[in-house]
Amino acid sequence: MVSTHKNFKILTSAAVVTSAIVAPVVVSAAPTSFKDVPPSHVAYESIMYLSGKGIIHGFDDGTFRPAAMVTRGQAAKILATSLDLDVRNVKNPRFHDVPTTHGFYKYVAVLYEAKIIDGYSNGNFGVNDPLTRGQMAKILAIAYDLEKQPLRTAKFTDVSANAYYAVYLQSLIDNKITFGITRTRFAPNQNVDRGQMAMFVHRSELAKKRTETVNATISTFNGYTLQTDKGFYDIPSSLRNFFSSQNTNALRNAKISFEHDKGIITSITTLELRSSGTSSNLITLYGNAATLDGNLIINADYLNVRDLIVNKNVSFNSGMQNHFTGDSLYIKGSTTLNDYTTPTNRTLNFTFNNSTLNTVHLSKTNTNFILSNRSFAQSVTMKANGSLRTNDTARVNEVSVEGSLSEATIYSNVPKVSIATTRDVTLNGAGMFTNINILTKRLVTLNTSGTISVLDIPRDGYVNIGSQTWVTNVLIPWNTSIRNVIRNYDSAIYRIDRINGVTNPDRTPPYVPPVINDITIRTATMDANGFISMTFDQNPTKYKMTTKTPMYVGDIKTNQTLELTNLSIKNGTYTNGQAGTFSWSEGKNNYSTSYATVSSNGNYKTVVFFEDIRLKSKVFEITYRVSSLGLEVDTDFTDNTVTFLNNSTLSVAGTKGSYTSIAGSKISVPTGTVTNETELQRAISLKVPEIVVSRDITITKTCEDKLSRCQDSSHQWSDD
Hints:
This protein is mainly β and 720 residues long. Helix content is 12%, strand content 35%.
């Protein structure tokens, strides 16, 4: 066990870190070459290391004299210098043989004050006495705070269990500082020479530094060596791709804390990124699948971090003032947006693509937090006004709205939302919420577009339900009036299906018109302009058009035109509620809907429009993809994929499910008489600006739904 000695008087924290540099690191003067210490000498590396740090010195004749004995006074100076102790204001230990004028006085005094050394019973320190191996063992163990423990791995015949130094030997052996002169002899009374002392101190420093963290600023790196303001360190193979030239800009002036073993980095405990890009030139940190054992701090703007595993936490500080993007990140700890100062009304954008996050804490006002592609967050806590959005197949398992915020916006389908604010709050956005739990006594306004499956309101809860919010089931305390907890209940009656699992008695079921299953066509023609004329027989004969989406009686009109507007196909980035508007007319009445869902299957995307916000009663469905051929589109009515030559804007005309291209698209359409059902469906799916009904049509009687009105088997419609 190695730790920092609690009684050291440290000169400066920087000095301590400097002393932590290990071989082959050089942080001060270059080591001196000694005539009598060739590279083959057993103590060469240790002598060079301590010489380079200015801890030991040679003689005027250029020698080091490694075989010369070390005195107790010399050992005191070497240890005090190695430990970087403050020798400026020392307390006099009053040893008879170490007066204040002695050259080793301040070193002996500071070690005595730190309880590392002691003197003899006669009042002397023995400053000129040779240092023995037994004395050395005790002094080193205390100086470098090595654990006292019984000797167990070595069987020294010359070491008594009661010897003053015996309990210090095991830690010296465990940390590879000393092993004895043979397997059975430690030689405790043998004198220590200068070469041995250099090795003992060098090895002790290494033992101390194995668990020591270096806090530094990155200067340069080349994949093998990291240069910091505290020295040079070797980069392990697992981090060489991380410290590669492609990350030069991202890691410039970054602050880093890491642990090392003999100068080799073993783990990064903290990395703070401080190099910013611009809105037109983002800086990217390429993780290259590396693992950051500790924390990642983002203190930079216009930054992209990708392909990195963070075992602990990610936090954002004041350097992030506009935009951050994370791609393919795995953050095992928390992701925190701290509250810091930004210009008034500025919105901060955080986007995570294909990333996995554990817990997310949003404490910064005016933030736009986006999860895209296959991103997932276990939980998101919103403590400040801002927005949370999921795109594509991204998911959030749980959202908590709490603290003193007054407004939160969520565009996502969330299984569980809890609201525990200390002030009145409004929840905006759109999505499907499985459960919303009201945990506050303040007024909560639910102004979301979508359905809440279960809204749980306690006795002291108060809720307003927005005009676009539908609630499947409201849970309230028994013997509590619904009007006491939902303040605008009278205006929200028709958007609340059940109360405590029982059908809302105040709601009148809407009328559901009958469904027409089949329309029988006798003949159909299309001219060069795309106009189709169809003749319907009173008796079913040859042609039949079957819709995948049920058609209602009220939909069968002449001169019917349906149009899909504001649907941008170009980049294919639709999300739920953002697919545009589907408009159609029935006689003199015009209708439209923007309630839609978007799903993907391979390269294809499917947009489905519904009649109301609850995403029920499908109106229109279109499937498309953009390929090298252009825009390929398919709908419920088609039996093949049709390719458009442009990929800008799509309009739909004709009956539900048909479509056409606009803005000068060239489409090959059949002309003349349509002779079979396949050609008819293909023609209808291409372009039907107008339907001309020349004969009556037959509507088959259906009575599949108990709420439907059964129609006469021969109800006839004619041209208006």
